[in-house]
Every structure is written in structure tokens, then in C-alpha cells.
Write a structure and sequence with these properties.
This protein is of the alpha/beta class. It has 14 helices and 25 strands. A hairpin with a 5-residue loop joins strand 21 and strand 22. 44% of the residues are buried.
Length: 526
């Protein structure tokens, strides 16, 4: 706080962080909010170009940067990226270098013109003073988050303080049963909206447990060990993690005594029925399994758990309190038991305040309100069941259209995930012979390979449990599947690659090199 005063930080100034999920990052965020300044963060798995693409749009004054970070035991020097960042973002005049916890500080003596470098531990020597949180307007800017950037330059989504706090406290207290002195864990990085969601738990007088790095480093059940040791009450992970755990530990059989655990939250992608069954059969029986779905756009959830309703395997329990969420046909008519577009028909507190540098809100209106008049169109392909539960079938811009019939990709993934031979998959529609054909790409688990027998089994499973229309025309093995920094697979990037279209922003991907394997595939020419 005193440091910000000394460098003359004011309301509305942008403070940015290129940091891992550590205590220092949370402290810097809280200090920024005390000044009414605007926070924005990227995790160290973003390359320098990805950081520049995001932060250069908002002209920040201060950058917090880690000296290094680790993933799967590998050390990555982050300070080597600092010259490129400062070269392209001249607004940054102050840089605070933060030592990665438990590691020796990487020596860095490089100097920059008009930019002053500080060390975090030096700032901690400044005599502290009582933090006085000024009261700002409900609409005061709180944080800028970024769209994935896979279809162009990342959009800078600016959120309001009051609305986000109100929405998060509703979700925490009423949907997730978070109470004072609870211990909350969510596997996330600082580049994902769930980090903001996690930090807000402090407003409910709960403690947050931070984790940084690979969730399966040296031990596939590492996160469960942490949940046991730290007496976690809410355990938040991704559907992808549950699926991986199910394959690595198919007979976990309640290995960990999770006595304090009340809630397991799953997000990031739809949680399959097998994922639900695995949790109740192997992790904990008497737990509220809450599959949730929302997005960076609303920095919260549209659909999530309900403490007073039964959990149905494969479904998200209900819409968020105060949100008139529905599923529409292309003509704007409500649907039940039929897939359509996820919408919200009323205003809500965590709607974006604005997009940064968006004159007359043109981009914001185009992103959410062009499809249906005065109704938020979220871009998810969804379905409401008779139970009032929701199923998210994937992003609506990546739905498949063979024979002109819209099909969700999630139904194919839920069948493919059942095969232990398959590590991961991605499915896209390829334009072919004046129609669309379904192509399934898979990566194989160790010691397995694709043969005709396995291929037939996969197709039969999809035919039986999804529909004949869902059966892929081709199943192709690849070494890796491209994904965003937050771990989401990028169907649109793969589709564009196989059809020879230009990828607008490969820097948004965690592993853009994976796309090379999808170019000019012989299997896709017949």
C-alpha cells in the first residue's frame, strides 16, 4: 500500500501481474483494489508475445513479475522475457520482481531507461500502515480479463467492483455453502477467471489454499493429498482433471479421508456421467458434486449447484439465483429437452462494464447482444432437462452440422473418454463434398495404439450412446492436442488448420506447435 502511495498510483490506473498463483499475487491484487486501481493478470505459461498482446491494450503503470516458475519439475526463467515486454509496453514505468516461493532468487542486473525495478522483499521492508479501503462507486472498474484470443486479438473485458463481489458472494454463500473459516481450494492459474472467483472467497471470511504447477507432478492424486492435508471444504478442479484421475487411478476406493470436504466443484468443460460416478464411487460418497459453467465474460457462473436439489449424473443442477437463464432455438423460442443456444434474459450484476477501448460499446454489443434483441447470447450449446438441470454440449461456434443437423461435440467426448486406451481427443467438422463430415483426433495412452478393432469399438460406442449421426468418418491419431492457456481444447483452430484457413492468433495457445501435425494430413484428402 505504501509503495503504491510513494509511486503515486491513483484510481483507474492499471496494475498488471505476470505471476504464478502465489500469496504475493493475492496481496498485490488486494492492494490494487484499495486504491481503486484496475487489476489485470496473466500466468507465466503465457509467452512474452501473449502478455504483450493483452497488457499493451490497457497501458499499465506497474508490472509485477515472477523471476521464474516451475511446471512438471522444469524451471523456466521469466525475467528473460522482461526486455521484450517493456519494449512493447512503454507505459510500464515500475517493475516489481517477485521471487518464486522456496527458490533462490535469479540474479538480474539489467537496467532499463525510464523504468525502475524493485524487489518484492525490499517492498516488504517498508514500514506498513493500516489499510484504509476507500468506498468507491458500485460501477468502479475492478479488473480486466481477456477472451481466449483464439479468433483474433484478445478482447479486454472490464468488470465492475460491486457487481462481481455481489455475484461471487451469492455463488459462494448460497450455491456452494461456503462459511467462515472454511478452506477453499481451486486448481487455477492467474490467467483464468476462476482465480478471481477463488480470491473473492476471502469476502466470506474463508481461507483460500493456493497451488501452482502441474496437478499430477510425481503423483496423479497430488491434489487429493493436499485436500486431505489442508482439510479442504470446497475442492475445485476441472472436468479434464477428473477424467485424467479416473484413468490413472481407476480403483482409488476412498484412499483419502476427506472428512471436512462438503463440496466438489468441476468446471472448464462438461463433466461426463462417468466423471460423476467416479467421484461418488472413489473420492467421497456424501459430497455435493457441483458441475458449474459460466465464463470470463461474466467472471462467474450462469448454471451451477443447488444445495436443496438432487445431483443427477451428467447434469448441472440449476441456473444461478437471480439469473433468468434459458435455452433458445435459432428463432429465439425457448426449448426444453432440445439443444439450443444458452441465453440470459435479464440483466445481472457481473455483466461486463465495458470492453477496453471499445467506442460506443460496439464490440460488446456485437459479442453478446447481436443474436437476440436485448438478451445475452453466451455462445454455449446447451439443453434443459425435465429435472431443470442443464447439459452444456460445448461452444455453439464449434457445433457439428453433418447433413445440416446440429450436433454437440460433448456427446462424442463423453463416449471417447470411457476408453482407457485414449488419453485425450478433439472432434471437428470438416467441410467435405458439399457437406460436413466428423473427424475425431485422438492421442493414445502409454502402451496403446489404434487398430481396426479399437476403431470399430469407438464408433459402435458413439453410435449406441449418442447417435449414428455422431459417428466420426475418420479417427486419426496425433501426438498432441492444441489448447488454450487455461487448458481448453481449441476445436475451431483445428478446423481452420485442416481446411487450410489462417489461424488468427496462435499466441493464445499453450502449445501452438501442436497444430503443425494437423496440416496437410493425407487421411483428410480421401
Amino acid at each position: 500500500i505504501k509503495f503504491f502511495k510513494e509511486i503515486n498510483i491513483k484510481k483507474g490506473d492499471r496494475i498488471v501481474a505476470y505471476m504464478p498463483n502465489t500469496i504475493e499475487t493475492v496481496e498485490a491484487f488486494i492492494a490494487a483494489t484499495a486504491f481503486g486501481s484496475i487489476w489485470s493478470s496473466c500466468s507465466p505459461d503465457f509467452g512474452a508475445k501473449g502478455v504483450v498482446e493483452r497488457f499493451s491494450q490497457i497501458n499499465p503503470k506497474v508490472l509485477f513479475i515472477t523471476d521464474q516458475y516451475f511446471y512438471n519439475g522444469k524451471k523456466i526463467n521469466i525475467l528473460n522475457r522482461l526486455p521484450e515486454i517493456l519494449n512493447f509496453i512503454p507505459s510500464i514505468k515500475k517493475v516489481v520482481v517477485v521471487n518464486y516461493p522456496g527458490k533462490n532468487f535469479i540474479k538480474y542486473n539489467k537496467k532499463f531507461k525510464k523504468v525502475k525495478l524493485f524487489k518484492w522483499n525490499e517492498l516488504m521492508q517498508i514500514q506498513s500502515e493500516k489499510i484504509i479501503f476507500k468506498k468507491y462507486d458500485f460501477e468502479n472498474e475492478l479488473a480486466i480479463l481477456y477472451s481466449s484470443g483464439t479468433t483474433g486479438k484478445p478482447k479486454c473485458i472490464c468488470h465492475r467492483s460491486g457487481g462481481v463481489l455481489l455475484q461471487h458472494k451469492k455463488e459462494h454463500l448460497l450455491h456452494c455453502d461456503i462459511k467462515e473459516n472454511d478452506n477453499i481450494f481451486y486448481f487455477t492459474t492467474c490467467g483464468w477467471m476462476m482465480w478471481n472467483w477463488l480470491v473473492s472467497c476471502l469476502a466470506s471470511k474463508a481461507s483460500i489454499v493456493l497451488f501452482d504447477g502441474s496437478p499430477m507432478y510425481k503423483s496423479s492424486d497430488l491434489l487429493l493429498k493436499i485436500a486431505h492435508r489442508e482439510k479442504i471444504t470446497l475442492f475445485g478442479i476441472s472436468a479434464k482433471y477428473i477424467d485424467a484421475l479416473r484413468k490413472y487411478k481407476p480403483n482409488l476406493k476412498f484412499k483419502f479421508k476427506l472428512k471436512k470436504l462438503k463440496t466438489i466443484c468441476s468446471t472448464g468443460s462438461p463433466l461426463s456421467e462417468d466423471g460423476f460416478k467416479y467421484i461418488y464411487k472413489h473420492i467421497k460418497k456424501n459430497v455435493h458434486l457441483s458441475s458449474i459453467s459460466g465464463g470470463t465474460d461474466i467472471v462467474s457462473c450462469f448454471v451451477l449447484g443447488n444445495l436443496y436439489q438432487s445431483v443427477n449424473s451428467g447434469e448441472i443442477q440449476n441456473k444461478g439465483l437471480g439469473l433468468d437463464v434459458d435455452v433458445f432455438s435459432d428463432k429465439g423460442k425457448p426449448l426444453k429437452n432440445i439443444k439450443g443456444e444458452l441465453v440470459c434474459k435479464n440483466p445481472f450484476p457481473s455483466m461486463p462494464l465495458k470492453f477496453w477501448n471499445d467506442k460506443n460499446d460496439n464490440k460488446l454489443k456485437k459479442a453478446y447482444f447481436n443474436r437476440f434483441k436485448n438478451i445475452w447470447h453466451h455462445g454455449d450449446y446447451a439443453e434443459i432437462k425435465n429435472s431443470d438441470g442443464f447439459i452444456i454440449h460445448g461452444r455453439s461456434d464449434t457445433t457439428l452440422n453433418p447433413g445440416g443437423v446440429r450436433l454437440g461435440t460433448a456427446e462424442i467426448y463423453s463416449e471417447v473418454e470411457k476408453f482407457k486406451e485414449i488419453k485425450e481427443s478433439i472432434v471437428v467438422g470438416q467441410s467435405w463434398d458439399n457437406d460436413v463430415r466428423i473427424i475425431l483426433f485422438i492421442t493414445m495412452s502409454t502402451n496403446y495404439s489404434l487398430n481396426k478393432d479399437l476403431s470399430d469399438k469407438i464408433k459402435n460406442k458413439i453410435r449406441q450412446n449418442a447417435s449414428p449421426r455422431h459417428v466420426p468418418s475418420k479417427i486419426i491419431v496425433v501426438k498432441d492436442i492444441p489448447r488454450t492457456k487455461s487448458g481448453k481444447i481449441v476445436e475451431l483452430a483445428v478446423k481452420n488448420t485442416i481446411e487450410g484457413n489462417k489461424i488468427k492468433n496462435e499466441e493464445a495457445l499453450a502449445n501452438p506447435e501442436a497444430l503443425m501435425e494437423f496440416k496437410n494430413l493425407k487421411e483428410l484428402k480421401t
